[in-house]
């Protein structure tokens, strides 16, 4: 679930086939929002829990925060440590314009 952060050398800022869940949908002024609000954000993003969940962003910080929110909602996920920079370097064809 990448966030909208451009990667150098890529043609866009979105991983093809990925779902986008902005941090603003799962964090509020007091921290992580309710489990119900997280579920709503996941439903809006067309999240499919039958697939492995891997969070990604430009440098790992936002992906880690999203993974924390997912854990709060009882969802398992992994953080892709390589970030969009690594994907852009190894497989730039995986990155497209946001849809």
From TrEMBL:
Keywords: Repeat, Transferase
Entry keyword Ligase: no
Alphabetized PROSITE patterns for the sequence: RHODANESE_3
GO terms for cellular component: mitochondrion
Domain of life of the source: Eukaryota
Organism of derivation: Oesophagostomum dentatum (Nodular worm)
Ranges of residues in domain Rhodanese: 14-96
Recorded coiled-coil stretches: none
Protein name: Rhodanese domain-containing protein
């Amino acid at each position: 679930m990448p966030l909208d952060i451009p990667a150098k050398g890529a043609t866009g800022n979105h991983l093809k086939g990925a779902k986008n869940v902005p941090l603003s949908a799962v964090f509020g002024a007091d921290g992580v929002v309710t489990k119900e609000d997280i579920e709503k954000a996941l439903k809006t993003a067309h999240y499919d829990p039958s697939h492995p969940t891997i969070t990604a962003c430009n440098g790992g910080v936002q992906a880690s925060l999203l993974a924390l929110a997912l854990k709060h909602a009882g969802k398992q996920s992994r953080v892709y440590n390589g970030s969009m920079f690594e994907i852009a370097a190894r497989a730039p064809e995986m990155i497209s314009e946001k849809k």
